[in-house]
Each structure stands twice: as C-alpha cells, then as structure tokens.
C-alpha cells in the first residue's frame, strides 16, 4: 500500500504544530489590535465586496472634529457604518467624549466593547444596553446608494440619536435623505482615499461647521 510510505505525525508532534499555529495567529491578532496604530485609517483594509471605501485622512479628521463639537463635553457619538470616522475619533481619545462603532464587518471587533455588530437589514436588532436616544450625535454612511438601505439605516439613526444627525452618502440621495431623516446638504465635500464614481456629500439636521 503506497499510503504506508506517507510519514505520519505523532500525536505529540501534531499538538506541538497546532500550538505553533495558534501562537502565530495570536501574534498576528496582536499586531492588528496593538500594532503601529490600530486606529489609523486604513489599518483595516477596504473590502469592496462589502462596499467599503474609506475617507481620506483629511475628511475623516474633519468629520471627527465636527462630531466632537456637536456632541459637546462628555458627549456620546455613534458611528454607523463609518469606521474611518470612528478611527479618527479614537486618535483623540481622552478628550471628554465616548464613541462606539456599529459595523457589519467583524474585523472591527478588534476594537473590543465599542464594536457592535450591525446589519442594516435588521435596523433595530441592537444590544439591550444600547438605549434609545442615548447618543448626542449619530454619524452614518449607509453602504449602498439605495432608498431601501437609507430607509433602514434611518430607523437605526432615529433610534440612537437624541437629535443630531450627520449623514454621508451620495449626492443623488439628497431627496431621500430629506424625506427619511430631515437632513439638508452641506457645502463640505467629503473625499475618499480612492476616488469614487458617484459624487459624495454630507447632510445634517443642525447648525454645523460643515457649511
């Protein structure tokens, strides 16, 4: 039987090999969660299959700064499908606000308790400890330019926010954004690290610094 010539690992050697692979995975995980700067935009790469397009560094900073001002001292900020803004906010950690990230991509679970798994198809399927109207501002960037996606994300936004909304989506969604969230387009033009085919805009429902 030819199979007799195939070397077999002993159970001890197999266990040692499995331990080695686990340690290797752990090291890679540590690199992801602690590495150079786990909060830098791009530290987790875009997944285009999930319709992910990160903001440019300047845009992410601008939106993060706007959120901090809008939330006020001791404010709470929710980032819904807007991880690059969350990352910029975390770079300012310790400045008197708290933030969480609601995201479908489980790679962002490296951010620990601040990560909340979120699927816009189930807009109110949220943890019990995420109380209604408990965030001073909600920043949202629905993954798809469709009214269905915006409408469902809007349910989540309205559940979470005390009032202030900062929405980032395509210019073609202006009418639907007003209809579902009562937001108006800003002068500020958000940019992405890679140019998108669709014109992108910001929308707010309060007096912001984006005009």
UniProtKB/TrEMBL annotation:
GO terms for molecular function: nucleic acid binding; protein-lysine N-methyltransferase activity. Keywords: Cytoplasm, Methyltransferase, Transferase. GO terms for biological process: methylation. It is found in: Cytoplasm. Pfam families: N6-adenineMlase. It catalyses: L-lysyl-[protein] + 3 S-adenosyl-L-methionine = N(6),N(6),N(6)-trimethyl-L-lysyl-[protein] + 3 S-adenosyl-L-homocysteine + 3 H(+). One of its GO terms (cellular component) is cytoplasm. The keyword Methyltransferase applies. This is EFMT1 methyltransferase. It comes from Grus americana.
């Amino acid at each position: 039987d030819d199979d007799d010539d195939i070397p077999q690992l002993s159970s001890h050697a197999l266990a040692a090999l499995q331990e080695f692979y686990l340690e290797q995975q752990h090291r890679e995980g540590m690199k992801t969660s602690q590495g150079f700067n786990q909060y830098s935009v791009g530290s987790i790469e875009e997944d285009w299959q999930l319709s992910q397009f990160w903001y440019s560094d300047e845009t992410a900073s601008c939106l993060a700064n706007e959120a901090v001002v809008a939330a006020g001292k001791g404010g709470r900020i929710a980032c819904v499908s807007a991880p690059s803004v969350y990352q910029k906010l975390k770079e300012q950690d310790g400045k008197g606000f708290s933030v969480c990230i609601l995201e479908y991509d489980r790679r962002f679970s490296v951010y620990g308790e601040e990560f909340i798994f979120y699927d816009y198809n189930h807009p109110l399927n949220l943890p019990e400890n995420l109380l209604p109207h408990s965030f001073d501002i909600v920043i949202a960037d629905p993954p798809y330019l469709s009214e269905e996606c915006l409408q469902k994300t809007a349910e989540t936004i309205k559940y979470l926010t005390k009032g202030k909304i900062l929405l980032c989506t395509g210019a073609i969604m202006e009418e639907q954004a007003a209809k579902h969230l009562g937001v108006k387009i800003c002068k500020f033009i958000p940019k992405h690290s890679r140019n998108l085919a669709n014109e992108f805009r910001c929308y707010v429902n309060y007096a912001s610094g984006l005009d």
